Here is the input.
Amino acid sequence: MSNIFKIELAKDDLNQALNTWISHLKNEKRVSSHTVDAYYRDINSFIHFLIEHIGGPLSLRNLETLIATDFRAFMARKKRDGNSTRTIARLMSSIRSLFEYFEKIEIIKNNAINNIRMPKLPQSIPKPLTYEQAKDLIIDTQNPDINEKSPDWVQIRNKCIFLLLYGCGLRISEALELNIKDAPIEEWQDTIRVRGKGNKYREVPLLSDIKENIKKYIELYPKKYNFDDPLFIGIRGDRLSPRIVQIIMQKMRASLNLPENATPHSLRHSYATHLLQAGVDLRSIQELLGHASLSTTQMYTKVNQKQLLDVHQKAHPRNKARHLKLVSDNS
Here is the structure.
């Protein structure tokens, strides 16, 4: 996606301002291309709604004079179109981000969006894989049926990516944004430096198995490289797309008969959950995951609570006695 705003019924001042914002996201905030695409789609949708809503060409002045009712009308339209509460919340978050930027660079100021009550999202509990499932996934990255005669470097590349997702808790975007210079190939390197959300860097400790596999991958790297080249590349030599990793995961999910929640991101959830179950404190897990707020990390305690309840229900003597009585009554 080009991410260039050239909306026909948006006036030049608005198109220019929108493109300034996109440039800010790419070059200053250095958000991932996936995130830029999402912002672009959200704002493009909002601008086209406003053109229809006001019935004519749209300018920056129109944005400055919007009132709360206009934003609520957009939310209502999206709901009628069948969008989920989560999608509408994300759209409004993107719009708020745009208006905050415009105010920061003193293009326009409109606080009406701050008076909008955002959709309340139900807090979902992460769905991690079991330790055995995660281990099988790592092994299966080199399954011949999955790789379909892929060269050795592709097989070890896939294994390294999944090791970083599960063994370091990286987001898929964080793993794929690594460059050759980030690869921990020296003996003294015990951590890997990762650029996370908000252009914030963190040091994540490495297991020796991960270091060894990345070193092996670098030795098999299929072309001459510079240190600023992407660490993980596709067959054509470009930086690997997240979609390719998702397709690989889909194949492994079918091969191993894993549940639908087995996604690349579920490996990050598994990493955090398994650390918590092993007794690692929440503050340390927060640092490892790169969460800005401890409250985000606390959701993993709910995973533990649910699992404890499930174990309690199955193992408590009173429940066992009730089960035996039911079996006896039905026999």
Notes: The chain has two domains: 12-115, 131-297. The longest strand covers residues 191-195. The CA atoms of residues 42 and 90 lie 8 Å apart.
